[in-house]
Structures are given as structure tokens and as C-alpha cells.
Amino acid sequence: MQGTLILGASGFLGPHLVASAFAEAQALATMADPFGPPVIAVGRRVEEAPRFTQPRNGAQWENFDLQMAEELPAAFDRWQPSHVVLAAAMSRAAACEADPAAAEASNVVLPARIARICGERGIRLVHLSTDQVFGAQPPPRKGFAESEPVAPVSVYGRTKAAGEAAVLEAYPQALVVRLPLLYGDSAGRGLGASDSLLEAVERDEKPALFTDEFRTPLEVRNAADAVVELMLGNQTGRLHLAGPDRVSRLELGLAILAAMGLPSEERARYVRPALRQEEQASAPRPADASLDASRAARILETRLLGVRAGLERAIGA
Ligand SMILES: NC(=O)c1ccc[n+]([C@@H]2O[C@H](COP(=O)([O-])OP(=O)(O)OC[C@H]3O[C@@H](n4cnc5c(N)ncnc54)[C@H](OP(=O)(O)O)[C@@H]3O)[C@@H](O)[C@H]2O)c1
What we know:
Elements: E1 4-7, H1 14-26, E2 39-43, E3 60-63, H2 72-79, E4 83-86, H3 93-98, H4 100-121, E5 124-130, H5 155-170, E6 175-179, E7 182-183, H6 192-202, E8 208-210, E9 214-215, E10 218-219, H7 220-231, E11 237-240, E12 247-248, H8 249-259, H9 264-270, E13 272-274, H10 294-299, H11 307-316
Parallel strand pairs: 1-2, 1-4, 2-3, 4-5, 5-6, 6-11, 7-10, 8-13
Antiparallel strand pairs: 9-12
């Protein structure tokens, strides 16, 4: 391995990818090269990204706008990666709905460009996508498998589905990993399913949690470890990562409050059970985007954690 490049390193998942890739690189360290192959962490506001690496400043962080298409080949010359994880995206569904052209630029054009560069140079590429490529149809009993046709309901889901296709057309040896709803440590930034809920509770908002919206959530560090393991492997095409538990938004929310140590009679005071039709959504959302990750579970050494084990790990962190 020559070096790992994490693109989108300053988001929710990115800092965990950096930490996981750095731990893998350290395993290759020698006396002459005490950190192992470099891990380069690229975002637009890396100064705001939490540093989960041990030691804290092990990775090389850099601000670079990936939309600067003409500068990208020279940047790749400088970074010299052998492995790339593309986590950069326009990932807020409401923002995508408000500006579909920007969503297309970030979620389709940009990944296709990165895939072409990686393909030309024979660089291993893992591109991250989402369970939101589904939703217009209910899932099969075990959740959506990789073979199910995409059927998005939002601009976010449509552009991510188009981005997957563009990446695999430009570079068929790339791996597209579809992720589910992620929860876990965002270092106080209110990102992800658990920290955003805990912030709303802290603000005394009594957030509405749906009893009729289902996901197969995954803890963010667990997701990062699995993605980095896949980066080091040779799978191609599309692969689903998800937790083994299909839960409603309310069930997940109550499990988060339980993991925080709130007794069961108190949890109901902080959240409000609701039906999807009772709330106005800022973007259309699938009622059930459950993924069947049985293929990944067979391939991976990293065990994909259920909600209880994932929350124990996240809250413990
Ligand atoms: N979080 C989830 O629950 C979830 C679920 C399923 C799939 N995913 C997928 O997983 C990936 C990572 O998600 P996330 O939650 O970590 O997203 P996120 O928090 O929105 O982070 C996205 C990252 O991409 C960066 N970025 C966007 N455009 C860029 C550009 N032009 N140049 C450089 N950096 C750019 C952002 O930088 P700035 O912060 O400066 O904009 C940020 O660091 C995405 O592909 C997302 O679709 C996430």
C-alpha cells in the first residue's frame, strides 16, 4: 500500500474513516517509517474535523475543494494514493431538494470525475452511497438486497443512484458501498442519528419520532471499520452495509435514550411518537429503506453491530 486518501474527511463519517485507515496503516509501520503509509484526509473545513487518530495528529489533513476539476489531476499527483474512499457528498436531503443542480454536481459529476482519475491510474476506489436509493417500493422481507432495482423518492436518493451508476460506468473495478442511517459519536457536532436527537432533547424540543419509518442503522465507527476493510479487499460492484436490526425511528430513539442511562419511564417525556403523515417533511423520505447486508456480513471480518451493541460502543466512546 502506497497511501490512503479519504475524500470528505470533515463530515460525520469522514473522521472515523481517517482513524480506521490510520490504524490499518500503522499496522504496516516499520522502524524507518513509524506511521506506515500516509493517510491523507481531505475536506473543505478540516480544521473543524475531530481527530480520532492515535496519535491525534497522525494523518495529513488538507483543505481542498474537489469541485476544482482542473486542479484534481495535479492534486492526485501530489497525494499519490493507492487507495481512495470517496465520502464527499451533498448529503442533506433538504439541501438537495432545494438545489437539485448542486446535488447533481456533488453526487453525480464529482464522483464520476474521481472514478475516471482512479481508473486511469489503477487506484482502488470505494465510493459511498446510501439506502436512500430505495424507497418508492417496500422492501422484500429481509430488506433490499444489492440485486433490487433502485427506486428513490428524493433528489438526494436520485442523485446518489445516478452517482453510483456514473462511477461504475467510468471505473467498473470500483466498489460502491451503500450505507444505512448512521448513528454514533460526532464529537459534539450534532451530526448523525444519535447526536442530533440528543441535541434536540437538550434543547427541550420533544422531537417527533416515527413509529412507521424503518431503517437498519449502523454505528459510525463500525461503518468506518467495515468500509476500510472493504477498501483493502478486492470486491467490486455494489455492496450493502447495514446493521442486523430493522427498527422504527421511535425504537432507535428510545434505545439511544436508554443507552444514555435514562430509565424507561422517563424516556417517553423527551420524545413524541408520531406517524409520518402527521409531520411535514423537508424532503421526501422512504418509509422503509431497510438493507439486507448478508453478503457483506459473509465477506467481512468486521462484525456489523446491532443497535444495542452499537450504542454501547458509541455512548462508551
Ligand atoms: N450520515 C449518514 O447517516 C449516511 C447514511 C447513508 C449514506 N451516507 C453517505 O456516506 C457519505 C458520508 O456521509 P456523511 O454523513 O459523513 O456526510 P457529511 O457529513 O455531509 O460529509 C460530507 C463531507 O464531504 C465534504 N465535501 C462535500 N463537497 C466537497 C467538495 N467539493 N470538496 C471537498 N469536500 C467536500 C464535506 O465538506 P464540508 O463539510 O466542508 O461541506 C464533508 O466533509 C456520503 O456519501 C453519504 O451520502 C451517509
